[in-house]
Amino acid sequence: MKILVAVKRVIDYNVQIRVKEDGSGVVTDNVKMSTNPPDDNAIEEAVKIKEAGKAKEIVAITIGEEKAQETVRKALAVGADRGIHVKVDNVIEPLAVSKILKKIVEKENPDLVFMGKQAIDDDCNQTGQMLAALLNWPQATFASKIEVKDNALEVTREIDEGLETIEVNVPAIVTCDLRLNEPRYASLPNIMKAKKKPIEQLNASDLGVDINPRIEQIKVEEPPKRKAGIKVASVEELVQKLKNEAKVI
Amino acid sequence: MSVLLIAEHNNKEVRPFTYNAITAASQINEDLHVLVLGHKADDVAKSLSEVPNVKKVIHVDNEIYENYIAENYTAAIIKHAESYSHIVSSANTFGKNLMPRIAALLDTSQVSDIIKVISEDTFLRPIYAGNAFATVKSNDKKKCVTIRPTSFDPADKSGGSAEITKSDPAEASSSTKFLKKEEVKSDRPELGTARIVISGGRGMQNGENFKLISDIADKLNAAIGASRAAVDAGYITNDHQVGQTGKVVVPDLYIAVGISGAIQHLAGMKESKVIVAINKDGEAPIFSVADYGLEADLFEALPQFLSELNKLNTIQK
Asked: Looking at domain A2-245, does it have CATH number 2.60.40.1120?
């Protein structure tokens, strides 16, 4: 089997983001960037499947500016075999991302496409499902457990009511939840080795897909701030405040 | 200009967030139709026809809609999409799984997780775990929108009498099979809609210690939540997780116990009306959003909290 894993470069999950004063977005200059966390789970799962002898090749792909390549390089360091970087200059919407990924899937013919269930920057949670629709492939979203069977996957999904298990025929799209696995760290020798692995560069404009935005971002603002609270000295005081001041119990 | 809302239900009852989504959908346009895809879900269709905001219910009954198979749902929704300007659903795991599949087939850029309807094409939505709010305008002809249920009040459930029309199913997908659902049954209020939520984090140290939380939850008729750390560590099941990648809750009272308050957790609870934090680390970020902070060892504070609650003559339910 061949697995394509899509990874995205986002502001690191530990960074307290700041909104630009002109309302045009958030500050990204000199801000630490990393791989979108559930995309790390997607790579890890692909590597585990390959280690179990059930996949032959893992291709990592990212779409973004020049530096987005770092995320592919990281994927190569934990076990992907080769990389693809599709260059775009501006931020593009999940619909455009899925159209680009469709082109790549048609060229690469993977059996599975893995990616994180949502990106922690725009919090859209759309790309995997959209790609599945465009390819007319089955989708298994929010996966917390994947079992590879003959020409099918049994996937346990985290849903609001608990867990759901479905079976999807291959080829399929899986979007990964954070609890799917524990992503490994790349060892130094593997980081060095990854530098020699090939990354193919493509321009989105050469793929013949419409990636123009359909959604206008009118403004970005800070959410309303909560009023500062108080510290209480004892449990007794806390209960009194909740009863008599906040009147919630 | 009409809006089509996709109902979430279990074939017997309407799932509660559908009512919140109805409120938002009818703010987009008053001509709101609801699509019920289900198996023997006549009661669901009937309940929804009684919602005053709903103008029409379209009911498709077939065994292929007994469970939520996004592929099957999508095929049926696409059949009806032609007549509508907006397709909407709740932004919970139901709608998140489903809507992008519809949007892509309609060649529409979806607007996810809106918290406010500004006009028929302009919406407010949180980004970066709620650390920024974006006002976005959709320029697509047909719009696909998911709604953060906790940002809208539930619609009135009775007084209406919308027409129910039956419609034929679409083709079923042969490549996805439902195997099983492990639902966590509980007598407690649902986390998403509970008036009071008490949540535990890594500070609980193990699953058994969550008894300290459940005792208080019983007393307050509260739902139980958890941080991602507590779920990852196996203290409690995933359906309890509050945060950016879990559930968003907006209760009247949120009590965070042994939770440090990473931005990803705050994203799921900081709109709560009153927030209490109990943590032994006085510097924990959770205190920055707490109305009442108690710096204390939770293993001493929680039993005391329960005994103080027991002393009260009345407790609001």
From this structure: no
Q: Do A179 and B312 make contact, defined as CB atoms within 8 angstroms?
A: no
Per-residue tokens: A247? 């009147």
Architecture of domain B196-311: 3-Layer(aba) Sandwich (3.40)
CB atoms within 10 A of CB B119: 9
Instruction: Give the DSSP H or E segment for A100.
Output: helix A94-108
Instruction: Report CB contact under 8 Å: A164, B133.
Output: no
**Could you read off the pLDDT of A212-249 as tens digits, one per residue?**
999 999 999 999 988 889 999 999 999 999 999 999 99
Where are the domain boundaries for CATH 3.40.50.1220 in chain B?
196-311
Digit-coded pLDDT (tens) for B177-212: 999 999 888 889 999 999 999 999 999 999 999 999
Task: Count chain A–chain B contacts defined by CB atoms under 8 A.
Answer: 263
- The CB-side HSE value for B286 (13 A sphere, CA atoms) comes to 32
Q: Render B225-289 in DSSP notation, one character per residue.
A: EE-HHHHHTTSS-GGGBBSTTSB----SEEEEES----HHHHTTTTT-SEEEEEES-TT-GGGGT
Look at residue A120 and give its three-state secondary structure.
coil
Peptide bond into B303 cis (omega under 30): no
Unique residue bearing structure tokens 């079976």 = A167
Closest CB from B182, B275, B292 relative to A238: B292
Domain B3-166 in CATH 3.40.50.620: yes
